[in-house]
Structures are given as structure tokens and as C-alpha cells.
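[job 4471] stage=fold_predict status=RUNNING
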Amino acid sequence: MEAIARQVNENSRTFGVALSACTTPAKGSPTFDLPDGELELGIGIHGEPGRERRPMMTSGEIAEAALDAILDDITPRNPVLVLVNGMGATPLLELYGFNAEVQRVLGERGVPVARVLVGNYVTSLDMAGASVTLCQVDEELLGLWDAPVRTPGLRWGM
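[job 4471] inference complete, writing C-alpha cells
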């Protein structure tokens, strides 16, 4: 199992975008200041500020920026699993719209997609935004992904 975990880790990249900061219970206020009309690119899942702040962008522009960062760091040789994850305050409809843009960009760049998962899986409390994760898979990892799952958060193949 350790070898599989290492393989997944080595073949996965994530990029997060915040449209608002999160409020942690310990602090009781937003973890960083993000004025209206701006977004933070490259944020951390625990509410850490990102690497760059920009004026608000369209979901297509955000998908391009996120995938530019990911694909600059990893060149998929195999199909990818795509996870579009909500940060906690982004409606599911907006996540599916963002996923459509992610799929468009991956298609334009010739990256084959094996599976897609969209939803709120690893959130940052009340942060508006999303992250996109790509995990390059081979037949073994794809078989493990497709195995039946029955957990409170995921169910398929049952």
C-alpha cells in the first residue's frame, strides 16, 4: 500500500483559488484580507493565502491559470483523474461550471481524462473558491479507483 500511496503522491498536483478567505474557529476572523473584485491564486486548503492576487477572472481564465501551474509542474504521460473540489462556500452548480472549463482546457492541451469527481470533498470551512487536482493514472490505479466504495462521502460500484 505504501508504494501505491507514493505513486499517487508523485503523480498528483493540486492548485487552489480563493474568491474569499476562510474564517477559522481559533481566530474568529478571515485568515487573510481579500477585497471585493479580487481573487487569490495558489491558496492552501487550510486557508493559507496564495502565491498571487489578481482582479476577478472568469471561470475559464481561472481554469487556464490553474492548469498552467499544474501542467508546468507535471507532464501527463497517461490519462488523468480530475478532482474539482469546492472550498466550502461555492455552490455545486458553479463547481460543475468550473469543471466544464477545466475539461475544455485539458481537451485543448491534449490531456486525456479517465475519470472526474466534482464536489465538496476537502473544504476550507467557509471559503469561496475551488481547487483542481490532476492525478496521472495507469491501469492499476484506475482499477483501484473504480473499485466499489461505500463511505459516508463516496459511494459507487455497490
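[job 4471] summary: Helices lie at 2-10, 59-73, 92-108, 139-146.
[job 4471] exit 0
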